[in-house]
Amino acid sequence: MSSFPVTRLRRLRRTETLRALVRESRLSLDDVVMPLFACPGEGIVRPVPGLEGIAQRSIDEIVREGSELSALGVRAVLLFGIPEDKDEEGSGAWVPDGIVQRALRALGSEVPELTLITDVCLCEYRSDGHCGVLEGGEVVNDATVELLVRTAASHVDAGADVVAPSDMMDGRVGAIRTALPHTPIIAYAAKYASAFYGPFRAVAESAPSTGDRRGYQMDPANVREALRECELDLGEGADVLMVKPALAYLDVIRAVRERFDCPVAAYNVSGEYAMVKAAAAAGHLDERAAALESLVAIKRAGADFMFTYWAKDVARWL
């Protein structure tokens, strides 16, 4: 290779047109999925402190938001539910008239062009806030998997296009695949026990009442284990592998991308969103520039698409 002065890499940085011609990673509306939080009631938009633009929404407002997102060009949403009542079993997760099931039917009827993805977990529906059946202070695996299968099946019956199990129980992808042979599964394959979930637990009302989730979510120090998780989920029938969180785990996204020839997703989580929002509000950085840079970094690391609370903003910015 020639060296300076023959080689001058700045030549292709002189104008925006030149920079665009040689840009290696590109962000488009096809790359983003917007999380939405359905709650009981009517006419409710309940903002979340620290998460500007994110709110619990009643089903009529979920439909309104879905319509706006679709009009802007966002093509997919991820649904979470906040039930009217929680119980020790988490039965609101799979009942036919549950909050997510009703939101699915409403969105499917009113905004049929949206792809509807559902988060499959029990934490929002259980009175203890854990992701599965609790026995002796510990979440037990196999009994939880049975309930996750019921939940995923109820979502598909109500109109879900894709299910995304986020619980981190062993074997749940295979069990869901057996029950739903034709439904795409986005596996939260490498979901870490992260400090960056705090704002989400406020909006989803899903913080555990005792203990924590380190007994089933991954240790933040591990990457080889993440690859084992991904390999197992693919073997059980997952269609897409997801890494969560995204920005603090770009190396994991890259490792997954290099190891597996399948679609890879990443979840740009609430804490990552809230940090940029807070810094922008304090005048320390430009939100749009920082958000777009962050999302491009996730793409550059190897994600094919991402779940992000900036999805609606990205639609306006792009």
How many DSSP H or I helices? 11
Q: Major sheet: size, sense and barrel closure?
A: 10 strands, mixed
Q: Averaging pLDDT over every residue, what do you get?
A: 94
Q: Which spans have pLDDT < 50 for at least 5 consecutive residues? A: none
**Main CATH class:** Alpha Beta
Helicity range = 25-40%
Q: Calculate the terminal CA-CA distance, rounded to whole Å.
A: 37 Å
Could you walk me through the main structural features you see in this protein, from its secondary elements to its overall organization?
The protein has 318 residues and is of the alpha/beta class. The chain has one domain (27-317): Aldolase class I (TIM Barrel). Helix content is 38%, strand content 19%. It contains eleven helices and twelve strands. The protein has helices at residues 16-21, 59-72, 99-110, 141-158, 172-179, 198-203, 224-236, 250-259, 270-281, 287-301, 311-317; strands at 32-39, 45-48, 51-58, 76-81, 115-120, 134-135, 138-139, 162-165, 186-191, 240-244, 264-268, 305-308. Strands 1, 2, 3, 4, 5, 8, 9, 10, 11 and 12 form a ten-stranded mixed beta sheet that branches. Helix 8 links the parallel strand 10 and strand 11. Helix 2 (59-72) packs across helix 3 (99-110), helix 3 (99-110) runs parallel beside helix 4 (141-158) and helix 4 (141-158) runs parallel beside helix 5 (172-179). The longest helix is centred in the middle third of the chain and has 18 residues, at 141-158. The model has no long low-confidence stretch (mean pLDDT 94).
